[in-house]
Amino acid sequence: MNNNNKDLDQHELEKIRLRKLKALMEAKKKQEVVQEKIISISEKVDFVLKLVLSPDAYSYLNNLKNKEPHIYHNVYNEIISPDVIQNIDYLLAIIRKRGGVPRKIPVDAIIYLERKVKGIKGKIQVKRGDDLMDLSSFLSKE
After folding, report:
1. Distance (Å, rounded) from C-alpha 90 to C-alpha 43?
2. What is the pTM of this model?
3. Which of 3, 56, 70, 117 falls between 20 and 30 A from 22, CA-CA?
4. Over the stretch 24-43, which tens digit does the pLDDT of each residue have?
């Protein structure tokens, strides 16, 4: 009888182990599916960026990604809103249907967004002789 109880306990332990193993496998599989979906969406967004940005703007954005990742992420978030990510497949379908994008975003727009994120304001400088001064200083001197 004692041996029978041991076998029953062993069987129950094995069932519990199998359930836990199955739950772990399912969790891992779900995580892999989510990871694949994220990679898929990022590839689609990158493809859209290649289509929408001019070649020099796209390369400037990639250089920014390598040199200053935190600035890149802020500029990226300005360009790609959550709505774009949610409707990426629809956006791709429209671009394919129309055969591309009529006007591409120039590098100036990317530089503007970068300067906005960095907090750099535009300055007009005037050169008078060998002196270089702001326009406001130049006008207030006169």
Report:
1. 15
2. 0.60
3. 3
4. 999 888 888 777 776 688 88
Q: For the segment 66-75, what is each residue's pLDDT rounded down to a tens digit?
A: 999 999 999 9
Rg, Å, the chain Cα set: 29
Separation of alpha carbons 86 and 41, rounded Å = 9
- Look at the chain and report how many structural domains it folds into: 1
**Does residue 23 lie within any of the structural domains?**
no
Q: What is the DSSP string of the chain?
A: -HHHHHHHHHHHHHHHHHHHHHHHHHHHHHHHHHHHHHHHHHHHHHHHHHHHB-HHHHHHHHHHHHH-HHHHHHHHHHHS-HHHHHTHHHHHHHHHHHTS-SSPBPHHHHHHHHHHHHTPPP--EEEETTEEEEHHHHHHH-
The pLDDT of residue 142 is 54
Task: Give me the domain span that covers residue 111.
Answer: 42-141
